[in-house]
TrEMBL record:
The chain crosses the membrane at residues 152-170, 191-217, 237-257, 278-301. Belongs to the complex I subunit 2 family. The keyword Membrane applies. It comes from Phrynocephalus vlangalii. The lineage of its organism: Eukaryota, Metazoa, Chordata, Craniata, Vertebrata. It catalyses: a ubiquinone + NADH + 5 H(+)(in) = a ubiquinol + NAD(+) + 4 H(+)(out). Keywords: Electron transport, Membrane, Mitochondrion, Mitochondrion inner membrane, NAD, Respiratory chain, Translocase, Transmembrane, Transmembrane helix, Transport, Ubiquinone. The gene is ND2. It comes from the Eukaryota. This is NADH-ubiquinone oxidoreductase chain 2.
Amino acid sequence: INPTSITIITLSIIMGTIMTMSSSNWLMAWIGLELNMLAILPIISKPKTTRASEATIKYFLTQAIASAMMLLSSTTNAWQTGSWDILELKNKFSTTIMTLSLMMKMGAAPIHFWLPEVLQGTTLQTALLITTWQKLAPISLMYMISNNIQPALLMSAGILSMIVGGLGGINQTQLRKTMAYSSINNLGWTIMIMTLSPNLAVMNIFIYMIMTTPIFLMMTSTSTKTLQNLTTTWTTSTATTLSIALLMLSTSGLPPFTGFLPKMLALNELITQKLTTLATLAIMTSLVSLLFYLRITYLIMVLTSPMT
C-alpha cells in the first residue's frame, strides 16, 4: 500500500473511533463506526492470501450485520421516544438489540465466532489493532448506555464469554487464536462488571490493552506465530521471550501481576452487591483460562529448547 493510502486509512481509523466516542447522537456514532470498519478492511486484506481475503469478508459481514442491528435499535428508539440522543435509549427492545450489536462488534460470546478466524487470517499487527483499538468505540457506547441495559443480559453474556474464552484457548497451538480467546475472556470480565461499575469496566479494558500491545509487538519482532516457535525463540532472544511469558501471566490475572488488580476489584464489587454465585463462577472460569496461559509460560521457561 502506498504512503498516501496508509495515511488516509490510519486517519480514518482514528477519526472513526474519536467520532463515535465523542458523539451524543446515534447517527453520528454509527457513521464513526462505519468509517472505522471500512478503513480497516484494506489493512486486513493486505497479505495477498486466500486466508486474508476470507478474514476480510468475515470481518465485513459481521460488522455490517452489527451496524444494521444498531440502526434498527436506534430507529426504533427514536420512533418511540422521538429522540436520537444516545443517553435517551429508554425502549427495552432497542436496548437489548443495541447491546447485542455492540457485543457482536467487540466479539463477545455468544457472537464471538468471527474473532479467532479473522485474527488467524491476518498479520500480527492487524490482530493487535482488532483486539485493542477496534474495541474502544463499542466499549464507549456500551459505557454510555450502561444505566439502561438489563444487568441479567450483560452478566450472562459476560460469564459465557469467560467460559468460551477459557475453553476455546486450551486446545490452540496458534498464538493468534489463543490471543483471540484471551480477548474474549477479558471482554467477559469487562461486560460482566459494566452494569455494576462502568468505570471499573473501562479500567479493566485499558489494563488489558496495555498488556496485550507489548505481547503482540514482541511476537511480531520475533515472528512467533505458534507454540512451537516459542520453544525456539528462547535461544535467539531470551529477554523478549521472558517478557512474553511474564506478560502472559499478567494477562491471566495471576497475583502479584498488574492483571490481577481489575479482576480483584471486579470480584470485590460482585461480592459487595451480594452476587456471590456469579463471583464464584467468574473465579472458576478464570482458572480454566489460566491453564492455557500457564502452558505458554511453561513452554517458554521450563522446557529446554533445542539448540539452534
